[in-house]
Task: structure prediction
Amino acid sequence: MPQTIAVLDFGSQLTQVIARRIRECQVYSKIYHYATPAAKLREDGVVGIILSGGPQSVYAKTAPHPDPEIFQLGVPMLGICYGVQLMGHFLEGKVAHSKAREYGHGILAIQKPGRLFKGLPRKLRVWNSHGDKLTALPPGFQAIGTTENSPFAAIEDRKRNFYGIQFHPEVFHTDRGVDMIRNFLLVVCGVKQEWTTKDFISHTIEKIRDQVGKGRVLLGLSGGVDSSVAAALLHKAIGKQLTCVFVDNGLLRKGERALVEKLYGDHFRIDLRVADARKLFLRRLKGVSEPEQKRKIIGRTFVEVFEKSLKSIGHAEFLAQGTLYPDVIESVSIAGNPASLIKTHHNVGGLPERMKLKLVEPLRELFKDEVRRVGEALGLPREVVWRQPFPGPGLGVRVMGDITEDKLEILRNADAVLQEEMVRSGYYYKVWQSFCVFLPVRTVGVFGDERTYDYVIAIRVVESTDAMTADWAKLPHEVLQKASSRITNEVRGVGRVVYDISSKPPATIEWE
Ligand code: XMP
Result:
């Protein structure tokens, strides 16, 4: 086992972000429940402890407290936000409710760089989010940094190697935050950097084998990045014990099913079952034009088809899912937006309980970019690993109004042209999403000497970092021109192409 840093989780939403920063420093960490006995940490051989932030006040009745023995382990410690207040509370300092809640940016003035701030500038912008603060130092500690409102914004006890910081080094808004964490790991704890993507893969393979033993594992493959990487990883771990199910709902992009069959069936030789439910989906969607109604039908039918095909495979003990840590964030941050309702693959309507399947989620602690790195290391092709997001209801929410096979066919062909041009121009991997939308509006045109009366295709290309907000992409006119003229020339039924210049908000990325 690599040297382990323990992150004690006191309920902060940022605990996983701390773990991620530690991985960025190529160090192995494990998140522990806040009350984990010190003896357990000793047994696990942890070489450093980070106390996470948390929403409570250390004095609150229900406040989560660690085993006080952890302070006697002789292991270096870093308290972040609530973590430093715990140090104040348990090591005989003082913590009080602060009159001015400190939230947002502050300026940290470093008095003594010491080990924690080694190599950093003396003034840094840091991110605060706390109501309580340390008002008296615990014995043995001294202040090494201050902010406007906190004389003890950063503290150290050099003898015990205990450090505390009131702000959040793990968030992007704190300048050089990762360097502070790296200093804690490498300089204070003296850890070696030996935790890489390859190590993650071999460690996870062992964990999967441990968990499933000789059991059979089922996985719903969507063709997206997450389930693809999960499939490749599981396959490497347990080979033939894995069976993947791919539902063809008839709302896929051109060539999508063929790509999945070729990659997983032929290349990886995974036991892949394709449930062809195109007719069922289209029948149920017939004449339905209200977007929410469409989404509900698609979601319900998916679960039904998926469950049926799992049953037809025979007995299995496990259901694997490509759940990532950001899925949690995404479903929170787009709450109230239909997007948060439809993480069908991550929450298949109580299906695991109904079918008595235990969950296997090998990626649940990773962020998207980390998953992509794992995918690359497993040999997945670039077009799979760097695929743009695609909504669960697929083209169902990109054909406006009621869905017919003819409209889907037009959209598929137009979208394939756009994707080709996006890849060719190099913009496919630069933007967040690029796709076509079918508008059931017919407009007049002229083709040769003939009058035409054909449909409209809208091109939607957006830039974004998290899909919460998005900007329409200022693509070069030549790229748009090429896509537009190819679509009208090559796709029967399209007489006009328009470019969507709305940002989110107020528009959403998808049109329905
Ligand atoms: P909107 O349209 O809400 O989309 O701005 C935000 C992001 O979510 C994707 N999206 C979905 N993803 N199921 C999904 O898995 C859905 O029903 C769904 N609707 C939107 C969308 O493509 C964009 O990336």
Observations:
- The pocket of xanthosine-5'-monophosphate is lined by residues 295, 337-339, 342, 389, 391-393, 433, 467, 504, 508-510 (CB under 6 Å).
- The chain has three domains: 4-188, 197-385, 398-499.
- The CA atoms of residues 160 and 289 lie 66 Å apart.
